[in-house]
Each structure stands twice: as structure tokens, then as C-alpha cells.
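Entry:
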Amino acid sequence: MSALTLKGPYWATVRQHRRALWTVPAVVVAGLAAVLALRALASDPSSDAIPYANHGWRVLGLFMDYAGMGLLFLPLLVGAFVAGPMTARELESGTWRLALTQSSTPRAWLGAKVLVAALVSALGSAALVLVYRIGWSRVSSTYQLTWFDRGTYEATGPVLTAYCLLGVAVGAVVGQLVRRTVAAMAAGGFLTGLVLFALSSLRWSLLPTQSNTIPFSGHMSQLVPSNSLMTDWGLVTSSGARLPETACFERTQRFNDCPADLNVTSRYAEFHPASHYWPTQLIETSIVLVLAAAALYAAFRLVRVRRG
């Protein structure tokens, strides 16, 4: 992160946090090297006598699983870093006043922090998404690595970058309010994670599900398209009433044998097809960016009210 072409508070911000900022491209390069190496070791599973039996493919799948879950914490780290070392530490020590002696203003001081953090977070997270997709493309649609799985969903689309930008905005607010480095880091990471958890819990309510029914004797593979996220399923009676999938089993101890008095005629399922991936990504990304803009507005209002 060269600061040679930067001026004023931007130069000071990059210079002050250059070591931390350099870790971003270092992680991207290390991740790309690991993914390319594992892809080279993972042969095409379709070429094996037993699908998915080769050791290299399993190692790649395990790596991508852990990498996806690890990237979930990236927005939390961004929020913690901006809240603590970038904002609260200078307010706690009083060194932020040094910027005011350099013909700068409190708004320019905060703006430099936010702009540098947002630029590095956006470019770094976007690069990590591309690196993840390179590895994931070889092992996609397998256990814990389907498009809707926690970790994989965030690590393969723009929503990860949006959450990182939210972490920047939340950190800018929390750092000014808490003004204690460690406490601000904890609060910034926690609040960013809380928003991520809340929105991910509502994620599959953003679009209406599709539904399908098949005769009771039909096979489950006919009920839901492959690579879909099934949200609800069960049985349908002759009157159109829905029963849980276990209704027959509780009476007969067999899933394919129903008592006549239940009048079960078919099975139903509600699901999100794979085509819902990008619409859900774009809707959630838009919501997160709106929240980030609101938090950023609050941060600049706060610095104007408290520090002029």
C-alpha cells in the first residue's frame, strides 16, 4: 500500500496502517496459490470408477468448506479493525488532533479513514470471492458446498463485499461512540456480525418459494429439481389439506404406506431453485448497502456534532 501518491490525511492513514493493509493482498495471493495447488491435485471426479473417491478432490472440498466459513468472519474483522485501531485508538490517545494541525478538518480525518478502509475492503473481498469461486467450481453442488449453504453463499457473490462495507460504516460509528480500542473492536465486530446473522436468517424470505406436487407413489427426485433448496415438504390429502411428511410413518412405521383414513393422495414441496441465487444475492446486497449508507451518514453526523 504505497502512500507516495497520496496527500494529507489519506497519506497519514495509509502510512499509519500500512502493515495491516498489506495483509489483504498477502492473504489473496496465499489463498490463490493454495486453491490452484489443490485444484491441480484434485482430478476430475467423473473420471474415477467411484465418484468423489480421489484424495485430492476431498482435500479441496474440505479446504473450500473451511474457507467459506472463514470468509464469514471477514466483515466482522473489518468492523473490529475500523472501530478499534483506525478510529477509537486515535480518539482514546488524542492523536486525532494532530490531523487538525495539518489544515484538515474532523470530517476530512474521518473521511480518510472510511475511504481507505472501504477501498481496501471492497477490492480485497472481491478478490477473495474470485479466488473462492476458482476452487469452488470444482467441488460445487456437493455436501456443504451447494450454492445455498452458509459460508458458500456469502463467499461466492457480491454480498460479502457489501457486508465488508457495512463493517467499515459500523466501525466508524462505534469507534466514535466507544473511544476505547479493545471495547470498540469487540462492539464493532459484534454489531456487524449481528446484522449479518439477522439478514441471513431472513435471506430465504426475500423471494417467494416455488411449489410442486407429485402422486404419493412418486419418487422424491420428481418432486424437487436438483440443486434446489427445499424449505418445506409433506403430504396432501384428497381434501387439499397438508400433513407433515411423518404423518404416515407415525401410524405405520413406513414412509410409503399410509392408513386409508388419512386419504393421502400426493406429496408437496416448497423450494428455491438454483435460479434464485443471483436475485437473492442482489436483493440482499442492496439491503446491506442501504444499511451501510445509513451507518455512514450517522458517522459523519456524529463527527460534526462532537468535533465540529
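Residues 210-272 form one domain.
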